[in-house]
Amino acid sequence: MENITVVTEFILTGLSDLPAVRFSLFAAFLLIYLVTLLGNSTIVLAIEADSHLHNPMYFFLTNLSLLDICCPTVTVPKMLENLLSERNTISFAGSVLQVYFLIALAGTEVFLLSAMAYDRYVAICNPLRYTVIMSKKLCLQMAAGTWVTGFLHSLLHTVMTFTLPYCKSNRVNQYYCDIPPVLALSCASTYVAEMVVFIVGGILGVGAFMVTLVSYIHIISAILRIRSAEGKRKAFSTCASHLIVVCLFYGTILFTYLRPSSSHHPDQDRMVSMLYGVITPMLNPLIYSLRNKEVKGALKRVIVHKRL
């Protein structure tokens, strides 16, 4: 124990093996990040500016857009700094904060997507009681619950990860600090920490996924009972955007975290994490704005008002 060197910083090696394209990567990720900020901010602005969109569906969409602004902000600015400076380092405290907020925001989004699925279930399966069931108070409670649960859930995993001793190496094989690549550097057994991620994360994640799945089973069943083709199309269009976002997000999250460490491959993990951490937050505003007439109408009104 006397020979253990305490790790004070980590080296992010996820993109350091591509020196020839550093500037190209910097330009590409900067553009994606700016588009993400612009797209999600525009969605929030359009919803807040249009009184017709002040209902539960768009209240939850505002929360999703805020998450899609915050999530890449945790990792992308540091990645851009490292690409530009070629230092590739992050302090130990910085890595703790990065892991905490990343897992907190990702967890919050998991629970929020379930809340959005329940909202669509009530809207389609109980349309006459929708305004009674999805009251403003319930929506605020559900939104607050998703944020609180996500941040408390992250606190558990962050403590379990960073109370372990780190003395083998400080080279994280990823472009940001995350639980799997950081645990791989510990000089103690990571079995308990991995089991906590797998069991607690699995229970909460699978629970949230089951709420979403059961909601959509009822939604699809209700849509199929609609006699007119136009009615079916309208009903499906109200939840199609959310269903696409759910598939993108859940697929990448489950692939990243609910696997044993022995099955992790650095290059594969890097691409998947880039998909849910950078690309998906950029795509969500496009998915919702392009497939939703009300959002497109609100965006047009905001643009016209700004020009005037």
Helix percentage range: over 70%
Strand content: under 5%
Structural class: mainly alpha
Radius of gyration using CA atoms only: 21 Å
| Measured distance between first and last alpha carbons | 70 Å
Uncertain residue ranges:
none
Can you give the mean pLDDT? Answer: 82
Largest sheet: 3 strands, mixed
- What is the 3D shape? globular
Count of helical stretches: 10
Output the helix-strand order: EHHEHHHEHHHHH
Structure write-up:
The protein has 308 residues and is mostly helical. 75% of the residues lie in helices and 3% in strands. The protein has helices spanning 22-49, 56-85, 92-125, 130-133, 136-162, 179-183, 191-224, 229-257, 266-291, 293-307, and strands spanning 9-12, 89-91, 171-172. It has a three-stranded mixed beta sheet. Helix 5 runs antiparallel to helix 7 (191-224) and helix 9 (266-291) crosses helix 10 (293-307). The model has no long low-confidence stretch (mean pLDDT 82).
Outline:
Helix content is 75%, strand content 3%.
List keywords for this structure.
three-stranded mixed sheet; single chain; 3% strand; mainly alpha; 308 residues; globular; 10 helices
